[in-house]
Amino acid sequence: PGSAEYEAMADLGAGELGACCFVLVAGGLGERLGYSGIKLGLPTESVTSCTYLELFVRQILALQRRGGDSGSSEPPPLAIMVSEDTEKGTRALVEMLCRKVGAPGDWIQILRQEKVPALADPAAHMALQEGSPYRLETKPHGHGDVHALLHTSGLARQWRYQGKEWVVLAQDTNGLAFLTLPAVLGVSRSLG
Fold this sequence. Notes:
Elements: H1 4-14, E1 20-25, H2 52-66, E2 78-82, H3 87-101, E3 108-112, E4 115-117, E5 138-140, H4 145-152, H5 155-161, E6 166-171, H6 181-190
Parallel strand pairs: 1-2, 1-6, 2-3
Antiparallel strand pairs: 4-5
């Protein structure tokens, strides 16, 4: 940032923003962070308590305006990959946020990844549910599922038919992910 080359790439990339679709990978809970809810519901700062999901949505809408697509009546496509653990909380947060920003209720697509048996140790022993020697512990399969879900759900094909060229993936708690997106798109476009 700040160099002439960066600014040139950001300007080039700004023309690509209208061709973007966005995907958030949000299958896990905030347990490691001392938070019992979904990570998209975590506040990004303490003054307004803006959640990660609201931050992402506001950034996506700002990118739409920067790309000159503000005349579009629909926001850029957005999908969120959830798990059984996060689906209910994510759907509730999405519904509330769409009302807050005036977006259509069906704007954000939810894709649910399935769970798989969890491993207990490096020797790949199966993890058992606490208190039950006969039930396997399960966890979301992982971030790699997002590509298969985009394909099997038909979203990737739908976005392509809509003329979208770029799928932008972000982790649910990486609030800075989109700040350099215009420059990244510019570099990608310049390299063909």
